[in-house]
Known about the structure:
Layout: E1 2-7, E2 18-23, E3 26-33, E4 36-41, E5 55-57, E6 60-62, E7 69-71, E8 87-88, E9 90-93, E10 96-101, H1 105-110
Antiparallel strand pairs: 1-10, 2-3, 3-4, 4-8, 5-6, 6-7, 9-10
Amino acid sequence: MKWHKALNITQIPMEGDIKTIHVGGKQLCIINTEARIVATQSYCPHAGGHFSGGWCKNGHLVCPIHRYEYNLKTGRGVEGQGDYIHIYPTDLRDDGLYIGFEESWWTKLWS
């Protein structure tokens, strides 16, 4: 796992907010919900809607286009959707929020 600093403490979104950032070559949404910080891919796999315009409801991220819902712990869509979103590990440290990215075996071998 390779950790990238994503935000300073003061940049972390307020409870209930969703913020789009770029880190590690990816565009992600940072979500502050239910007393935890979650990092997800920034777009809905169903129709490409941007999650920054969505909201959270009962532990799910809701897409603003077709109201598709994704579990913020597992990334799985609700029953019948058959899709999922990627959830990235987060680590809130004294100096800010870090996002973890899996390293490919190729990167590990040659870096």
